[in-house]
Specification:
Strand content: 5-15%
CATH class of the largest domain: Alpha Beta
Radius of gyration: 20 Å
Number of strands: 9
CATH topology of the largest domain: Rossmann fold
Structural class: alpha/beta
Helix content: 40-55%
Number of domains: 2
Order of helices and strands: EHEEHEHEHEEHEHEHHHHHH
Strand order of the largest sheet: 3-2-1-4-5-6
Distance between the termini: 55 Å
Shape: elongated
Bound molecules: NADP nicotinamide-adenine-dinucleotide phosphate
CATH architecture of the largest domain: 3-Layer(aba) Sandwich
């Protein structure tokens, strides 16, 4: 298929590379330069990338970025044509997604929200899991692209239901990781050997994919970004906004937001969200590390 891919960040660049590998004709665009993808055409603007394509796929930071790329000067809207599909794998506001979809509908364009879970490693290996909002027939047309970038697609309902689902998913990741980090901090303070603790955690009902993914990085004290803290904080805020709009109380997530706020103030925004552990460690005066043998 002819695809424009907009946003060559941690996730987008690997996703676009997997589309090229699967034989699709890809044009890529990124706000800042120097992020080309081998085998893809580097476009000068979102409109340039989207000219003559069947599908425009976005993977951008936040709601404002998506709105700008679609509707600002040089944006995708300038070259929209009947029958095109816009697919958005950024995690953004569900209500803004409905607005964007409504605006392009008048031009005969279908809009699918397709946020994903799986982080950097899954983006590289083409094994992302997508949660999607949109029409069945449109999803069927996107199947070859989903296949090139991911291993599973969950159709959650009409446009915007993918984004709503993504907020519900990341709410859980934020709370699970906070629980894990607090447990590790107390364990360190009580002198429990983390290398003995981890297999026990994963053998018990406490086990989780979050622990599987994050524990090796923690043991290496590697907090370079797989999922930057600033983006997790954005998702926590999106979930809290959606909760407020629908009069739902989320006291646990509010407490976690405070931890992330302090971490951001302390300059951790561009580190992985796993770095919030170091804040707990600082407060407790300990460091989580494997016992010396
Ligand atoms: P990232 O590495 O920070 O990349 C963000 C991308 O958005 C970059 O291409 C950036 O361009 C672009 N951008 C930011 N503001 C912009 C603006 N105003 N106009 C145009 N482009 C703009 O982020 P990522 O990790 O790839 O994540 C992308 C999206 O996927 C986010 O919504 C995130 O929440 C979601 N997500 C991430 C993960 C993960 O594990 N990383 C997993 C699932 C979902 P520049 O290069 O010029 O800054």
């Amino acid at each position: 298929m002819r695809v424009a891919f907009l946003g060559m960040g941690i996730m987008g660049r690997s996703m676009a590379a997997n589309l090229v590998k699967a034989g699709h004709e890809v044009a890529v665009w990124n706000r800042s330069g120097g992020k080309d993808v081998e085998g893809a055409r580097s476009a000068a603007s979102p409109a340039d990338a989207a000219t003559g394509v069947e599908v425009v796929w976005m993977c951008l930071s936040d709601t404002k970025a998506v709105e700008g790329v679609l509707f600002d000067a040089g944006g995708v809207e300038e070259v929209l044509g009947e029958g095109m599909i816009i697919a958005d794998s950024s995690t953004i506001s569900p209500s803004a997604t409905r607005r964007f979809a409504e605006r392009v509908k008048g031009r005969g364009v279908d809009y699918v929200d397709a946020p994903m879970t799986g982080s950097k490693i899954a983006a590289e290996s083409g094994s992302l899991i997508f949660m999607v909002g949109g029409d069945d027939a449109v999803l069927a047309r996107l199947q070859p692209l989903f296949q090139a970038m991911g291993k599973q697609v969950f159709h959650m309902g009409e446009t915007s239901k993918g984004q709503a689902t993504k907020l519900v998913m990341n709410l859980q990741i934020a709370l699970i990781y906070e629980g894990f980090a607090e447990a590790l901090t107390l364990a360190a303070k009580l002198g429990v050997d983390v290398e003995k603790l981890l297999p026990l955690v994963q053998a018990s009902m406490v086990r989780s994919g979050v622990v599987d993914y994050k524990a090796p990085f923690i043991l290496k004290r590697d907090f370079s970004p797989n999922f930057p803290l600033r983006l997790m904080l954005k998702d926590i805020r999106l979930a809290l906004d959606a909760a407020k709009e629908s009069r739902v109380r989320l006291p646990g997530l509010e407490a976690v937001e405070e931890v992330y706020d302090v971490a951001a103030e302390e300059g951790q925004s561009d580190l992985d969200y796993a770095a919030t552990l170091t804040l707990l460690e600082k407060w407790a005066g300990v460091e989580v590390k494997a016992a010396t043998k």
